[in-house]
Write a structure and sequence with these properties.
The complex is a heterotrimer of chains A (254), B (333) and C (286). With 254 residues, chain A is an alpha/beta fold. In chain A, 37% of the residues lie in helices and 23% in strands. Chain A has one domain: 3-Layer(aba) Sandwich (Rossmann fold). In chain A, helix 3 crosses helix 4, helix 3 runs parallel beside helix 5 and helix 5 packs parallel to helix 6. The longest helix of chain A has 17 residues. Chain B has 333 residues and is mostly helical. Classes of the chains: A alpha/beta (254), B mainly alpha (333), C mainly alpha (286).
């Protein structure tokens, strides 16, 4: 399958400290990849380099064959490289339905319209309604986001990104801060992501990584030290040393 | 709470809270208030017309401050540009048809909106506030210096609008000007109600709540804000044009820092982001000012100052916003 | 040559008066992040108190100056406690409106108490004449204002860089929660800084009364100028405020001499250019 997302030898250093060193990865449609690594491994910098919020010193990022270097973050989003946020960033005074309508209108290039309302646009209503149903957000659809549960906000965060119909989705810790009782709903939402979408998840929660990812990339000190299946990652000695050590031991003990 | 939840799920698609019928009620209320004003102050229509002009300024400020979250102390630049636009068209180019003068005013306002928006939106926080003050003072000094065009500190005179639609002359008592003002206000309000609900209006509210999120969905933040500044200029310009027609003189005070600060005070007094708050705040402020400052302008300042402090501390949603909230609460009980 | 020099002296004196009044505003804005439009009102209160002490109580210049500073601090402290403390973390718009409200109140009350006329602060003999510098003579009060400016800058630098209060202050500016966690009583630091800021404003109001005359609308008339100084210099930076005052004093004074009929056009043009080029001020922290 032709790759939809390619990163080649992406490098960036801050004042002599190489935070991202020759990082390369390739993803095809349908990929479910988790990017993990200990704190300070350079995950956030990597995301910012890819989304265009930071400029790399060298290296190339391609989306569906098109080079993204020199494009603004906005242009990258429009080409189909969308991210969600680790700390929920939604509009507290808008409802979930309004969020999705806004994202759909943005995708269609209709947010510049000064007349009409999405309430009279059947296609927007239908699509946003379907998304709300898929993610189980119908009961909260018309309440202000500030008033709905945090777990629902996390789901909306995912739905909001999906409404932009991305080719590649960067999910930044989708389950961060969600109470244990609500994680099954996040799991279900992740399992229901479109089959042809390439998803790169940045995550700390190893259980979630093992449930979701079919491939794991481990970043340590700005380098990729492992790229393979979750099962192999758990067995890999270097990975255990760099990151998983205590976790794997805990598991063994339990 | 839980019951809400269930009924919400049972309904197919809930209609928005402020539906079209609420818009019509709002327009009718404004029309009724205008009629009441006419009956209560038949000898002071000039004041009422001036209030309508300032309402346009405060509505226009609500678009950038209430909808988009841009704090500005320089919005009179847009209003003044509208007033001078209409005045100069009449005094120097012989364009004395009132409708054409209003068009000239809104064009002037839009141009000033484009100009001051592109300056003010470069700053953030304190820098933005200072840029807004600097731009209105720059406009003020420019209008003062270009006395050949603007009349400088003597004001621009020789503004003699021809009868409206060739029929209704602008009389000494200000009947025609007041009617024109009310009609313009209704039109502007009708259009702004639509703008507020439009995709563009939603995007602007999104920018106020979280500009980074808006950028992350691929929408242009500064371009959108600049567009809103131009729209805001159109509205302020209509108000300025109306003022030029009704008073037949344009003074430097229409591009002053003082007017800009007062407009902000009126907006917050009434409540931001609802359009109606702008109207309520302006009417209350200006009627009150007219009564109190006739007695002693400094007492007026003390009262406004104390009122502002109280509103900020106890009713940050303003008169309109707080009343709506209280009403909603009492209904729920 | 002669005129160039006299413009330079005027610019320097004006700039230094601006500095003495605005530096307190800059420090509190850097520390508490509150846009305080009422800062000029404190300078005005200082001016009124000094004028009252000297003209109505017959006290001397130095005593009057001291009383003005102390009196303003006494007036400002409860305002900080009751009003400002509630808006330290509020959005800018709220801060702007609250402090405009305070300014309006002060103007109204000052006019009611002292009348609408201009208040003069009579200078002592030592400051009223010209001073001969050898090659030319300049007005003593301008020289005094310039010296006061440098003295305030030096004293503040010492306070911030060399005292334990300065350490707490800088810690609170950099990271308030962290400073609080380390045992700095940030509320006291805030209150003390506010008092120092109001006192400096009063001091500047009295010393600069010849250049910025005391009248009820003082607080509104120069509100913008003081804000501009902070925005151009960068909030919280002593060096930045000094630089901003010198630049703005020079632009404004030169503009008045060279192109009097343009008013403050070039002053505001300079402000726009500087703020656009340096969004955090000339020496503001990134």
């Amino acid at each position: 399958m032709t790759p939809v997302f390619e990163v080649e030898r992406l490098t960036r250093s801050f004042g002599g400290l190489a935070v991202t060193q020759a990082v390369s990865l390739t993803m095809v449609p349908g990929d479910r990849v988790a990017l993990i690594g200990p704190n300070g491994a350079g995950k956030t910098t990597f995301v910012n380099l890819v989304t265009g919020h930071l400029k790399p010193d060298s290296g190339v990022v391609r989306l569906a064959g098109e080079e993204l270097g020199g494009m603004s973050p906005m242009q990258r989003v429009r080409r189909g490289l969308v991210r969600s946020f680790q700390v929920t960033r939604l509009f507290p005074e808008m409802t979930p339905r309004e969020h999705l309508a806004l994202a759909i209108l943005q995708r269609q290039g209709r947010t510049g319209r000064m007349f009409g309302t999405f309430w009279t646009m059947p296609d927007v209503l239908k699509e946003s309604g379907a998304l709300l149903a898929t993610l189980g957000l119908e009961s909260a659809a018309d309440r202000k986001v500030a008033e709905i549960a945090y777990g629902q906000q996390r789901l909306l965060e995912i739905a909001f990104a999906l409404a932009l119909r991305p080719k590649v989705l960067l999910l930044d810790e989708p389950a961060a801060g969600v109470p244990q009782s609500e994680t099954p709903r996040i799991d279900a939402a992740l399992a229901g992501l479109p089959a042809d979408l390439a998803v790169l998840m940045i995550e700390h929660d190893m259980d979630l990584v093992f449930r979701f990812a079919r491939r794991v990339i481990v970043l340590a000190a700005g380098r990729i030290i492992f790229d393979g299946t979750p099962g192999d990652a758990a067995k890999d000695r270097r990975v255990r040393e760099a990151y998983l050590g205590s976790y794997a031991d805990d598991r063994g003990a339990a | 709470m839980n019951a809400d939840h269930l009924t919400g799920a049972a309904r197919p698609v809930a209609r928005p809270r402020f539906s079209a019928s609420a818009d019509w009620i709002g327009l009718a209320a404004v029309l009724a208030a205008a009629g009441a004003g006419y009956l209560l102050f038949p000898d002071n229509l000039a004041l009422l017309t001036r209030i309508i002009g300032i309402i346009m300024l405060v509505l226009s400020l609500d678009l950038v401050t209430g909808f988009c979250g841009v704090a500005t102390l320089g919005h009179a630049a847009l209003f003044g540009a509208g007033a001078y636009g209409a005045g100069i068209a009449a005094a120097h180019f012989g364009i004395s048809d009132p409708v054409a003068m209003i068009a000239a005013g809104s064009a002037g306002g839009a141009l000033a909106g484009l100009l001051s928006g592109s300056v003010i939106l470069r700053g953030h926080g304190l820098g933005q506030l200072v840029l807004s003050i600097a731009i209105v003072n720059l406009f003020h000094e420019a209008a003062n210096k270009a006395a050949g065009w603007t009349g400088g500190s003597d004001g621009l005179t020789d503004i003699a609008p021809t009868p409206l639609f060739g029929v209704f002359a602008f009389d000494l008592w200000g009947h025609t000007a007041y009617a024109l003002g009310v009609a313009l206000l209704l039109i502007v309000l009708f259009l702004l109600q639509r703008l507020a609900r439009s995709p563009f209006g939603m995007l602007c509210r999104g920018i106020r709540q979280d500009p980074i999120r808006v950028a992350a969905m691929g929408a242009p933040v500064s371009k959108t804000l600049l567009a809103m500044y131009v729209v805001s200029g159109l509205v302020a310009g209509v108000g300025g044009g109306l003022n030029a027609i009704s008073t037949q003189v344009v003074g430097l005070d229409s591009v002053s820092f003082t007017l800009s600060a007062s407009a902000l005070v009126m907006l917050v007094l009434g409540g931001t982001g609802s359009l109606y708050g702008a109207i309520v705040g302006t009417v209350v402020f200006m009627l009150f000012e007219d009564f109190v400052s006739a007695a002693n302008p400094f007492h007026w300042l003390t009262i406004v100052g104390a009122l502002l402090v109280l509103v900020v501390l106890f009713a940050p949603r303003g008169i309109f916003g707080t009343s709506v909230r209280l009403l909603e609460r009492s209904r729920r009980r | 040559m002669q005129s160039v020099l006299s413009v330079a002296v005027d610019a320097l004196a004006y700039g230094m008066v601006l500095f003495v009044i605005s530096i307190g505003l800059s420090l509190t804005m850097g520390l508490m992040r509150v846009v305080n439009l009422a800062h000029g009102a404190f300078a005005m209160v200082g001016g009124y108190l000094a004028s009252y002490a000297m003209r109505d109580l017959g006290l001397g210049y130095v005593v009057g100056l001291g009383l003005a500073v102390a009196g303003t601090v006494v007036i400002a402290a409860p305002i900080e406690r009751l009003l400002y403390r509630r808006i330290y973390n509020a959005p800018e718009l709220i801060q702007v409106l609250m402090t405009i409200g305070i300014t309006f109140c002060v103007i109204g009350i000052a006019n009611y108490t002292f009348g609408s006329t201009l208040k003069t602060i009579s200078l002592p003999g030592l400051l009223s004449g010209p001073v001969d510098l050898g090659f030319r003579s300049i007005a003593a009060h301008k020289l005094f204002a310039i010296l006061c400016g440098f003295a305030v800058a030096a004293a503040l630098w010492y306070l911030v860089e060399r005292t334990s209060f300065g350490v707490k202050l800088r810690a609170s500016v950099d990271n308030t929660p962290m400073a609080a966690a380390l045992g700095v009583r940030t509320k006291s630091v805030y209150a003390a800084s506010f008092a120092v800021s109001a006192g400096l404003a009063a001091f500047g109001g009295v010393v600069g009364a010849e250049l910025l005359p005391i009248e009820p609308y003082y607080a509104l008339r120069y509100m913008v100028t003081f804000l501009v100084v902070v925005a151009v210099g960068g909030a919280g930076s002593i060096g930045g405020a000094l630089l901003a005052c010198l630049v703005l004093g020079a632009v404004d004074t030169a503009g008045r001499y060279l192109m009097p009929d343009y008013g403050e056009f070039f002053f505001y043009l300079a402000v726009i250019l500087i703020v656009c080029a340096f969004p955090r001020g000339l020496l503001g922290r990134a």
